[in-house]
C-alpha cells in the first residue's frame, strides 16, 4: 500500500492489517516504543474545515514522532488557482507525506501521482476512508467483528460515507442495507461496478434496520451542500429515532461520524443513549489514522 486514497482501492487483507495495527497502537498509547515518523514532516492540506480530522491527524503525527504542517486553502497557491500537479511536485520535494481533505477525489489521486510521496485521503466528496476504518474498528471492539452481522446505513445513499461503506462490504463480505430516498440512491452503473450481492438498497428504513446489528447515519447535507435546504425535505422519514430502532437487533449499536444535527438525521434521545459508542467511534479516528501513518511512513 503506497497511499490511502479510498476503501475501493484496498484489499480485505490491507483493511484487517490496518485494524490490527490500530488496535495495537490504541492499547499501547502513551507507552509504545519507537517513533516511526521521527524526522518526517507531513503536510495537511485542508480545503474543507474540520474538527476531528485535523485534531486526530495532528495528534497522531506528533505521537509517532513526526511534525505536522497544516495548510489551509488560504495558505497555499491552490487557493489562487495553481494546478494540483504543480503543488504536488513542489511538496513532494520538501515533505515526507501529505494528508488532503478536499472536494474532488481526482485532486487527491493527482496529488499522489505527481508528488511521489505517501498521500492520505482525509475526506473527499467521493470517499471517507479514514472514517470507515475507524467505524470498522468500533464495530470490532463493540461486537467482536462484522462476520455474520448486518449493518444498516440510513440517509443519503450516495454520499462519501455510503460509498465507502459499500466498498467495505464488498471487500469484507458483511451484509449492508442502505435506506435512502429514491432520488438519493446509488446509480445503477455504480451498483453494477460494485457487484456486491451482499449490499442491498431500499427506500424503506424499517426494512434496512430490521435485525441490524449496526445502524449508521450521517448529516443529510454534506459540506458544500448547505445551500440545498430543499434536499432535507426528502429525508424526513429517514431519521434515526427510537421507533426505527425497534426493528434492530436487541444488542445493536448506533454510529454517527459527527458532527450530528440533533432533530434531523438523529434524535437527541438516540444520540445520547448511544453517546458512549459514538464518541468511542470519534476517538478511533486517532488510532485508525495512526495505523495508516505507520504503514505509509515506512515508505516515506
Structure description:
- With 300 residues, the protein is an alpha/beta fold.
- The chain has two domains: 12-128 and 285-297, Rossmann fold, CATH 3.40.50; 131-281, Rossmann fold, CATH 3.40.50.
- Helices cover 40% and strands 15% of the residues.
- The protein is built from eleven helices and nine strands.
- The chain has helices at 12-27, 52-63, 84-91, 105-115, 129-143, 160-172, 188-194, 205-209, 242-245, 268-273, 275-297; strands at 41-46, 67-72, 97-101, 119-123, 150-154, 175-179, 199-202, 214-217, 253-256.
- The strands form two sheets. The protein has a five-stranded parallel sheet.
- Strand 8 (214-217), helix 9 (242-245) and strand 9 form a beta-alpha-beta unit.
- Helix 3 packs across helix 4 and helix 5 (129-143) crosses helix 11.
- It is globular, with a radius of gyration of 19 Å.
- The relative contact order is 0.16.
